[in-house]
Predict the structure.
Amino acid sequence: MAKTAKSGTASSSILTSKSWEFLKKYIDNPSPVGFESSGQRLWLDYLKPYVDSHFTDAYGTAVGVVNPAAPFKVVIEAHADEISWFVNYINAEGLIYLKRNGGVDHQIAPGMRVFIHGKKGQVPAVFGWPAIHTRIANTDSKEPQPKVDSLFLDTGGRNKKEVEELGVHIGSVVTYQDGYAEMGYDYLVGRAFDNRVGGFMIAEVARLLRENRKKLPYGLYVVNAVQEEVGLRGAEMIARRLRPDIAIITDVTHDTTTPMINKTIEGEVACGKGPSLAFGPAVHNKLLAIVQETAEKNGLPVQMRAVSRSTGTDTDSFAYANDGCPSVLISIPLRYMHTTVEMLHRRDVEQTIRLMYETLLNLSPKTNLSYL
Ligand SMILES: [Zn+2]
């Protein structure tokens, strides 16, 4: 299904050095589920010059609007929140036990550096782990496996009082320290590209529309939703409020070509081969066909996959909101989801932006999305 990519070489890039600078800043800024405000502020500051108005809702979903007076509403959406941990219990020795905040991966935690977001600012800490020497010396027990209830953080504080004096409290959120970096062959690595790359991409779509002086025959709502990682909650709230006529959602999807992933179950999608489109009941067939035609006309490669009862993305929240909203999912392939080394390919970023941009130019209030 994938066609050969013609675009995306450095010379024809639609993205500027300012764009990449913003991406780096945005990715390195922590945005834990339920505590997304600082990321939302960064994002809105970047977006404001490219929209006519903006607002935020009660839980911090941020929206930029082009043509706010238009009755027909089209949404492009991503989610702003990042999986993280909650401080749950501090023991007498000052070690901190945690709860998950979203689907954070316990298997990668041992030995990682984190920031605890406390009352006095960021507190550096580490996920402690017994040394290999002390593990293998104990011949009658199996190697310990990292589990949520056995993982702990060490701040240096040697009792509960010392930890609290650092500003750490029950309910402080915890994020990894790892940040953005560029790798060989146009790969990027970062923490929570899921889905802040989406926030970046929809902002770039708005920038390109404004800079290319495109006039849209409808109101465009550029939505960066909170709380996706705990059940698509931010999208649910904002979909009800906006009552859009069409929604285009972007999120990450798995590159299934790395080891230990079963392609007979997960299908085949790879980084560097273009955005991925999904068939599934929540994905509107006619809208999907428009996106596919748009890709073909513009020489943009796409990778198809099938989803079952749900897409597992905010697409579900928009599709099933209100009286039903024709929705489509445009995903960007990503390796190692929910780890701190999420990798994606620069050309996929550009092509996903272009596919959303060109699709928007093909839509109007007259677009026929009737099933029968
Ligand atoms: Zn996720």
The radius of gyration is 22 Å. Residues 194, 229, 338 surround zinc ion (CB under 6 Å).
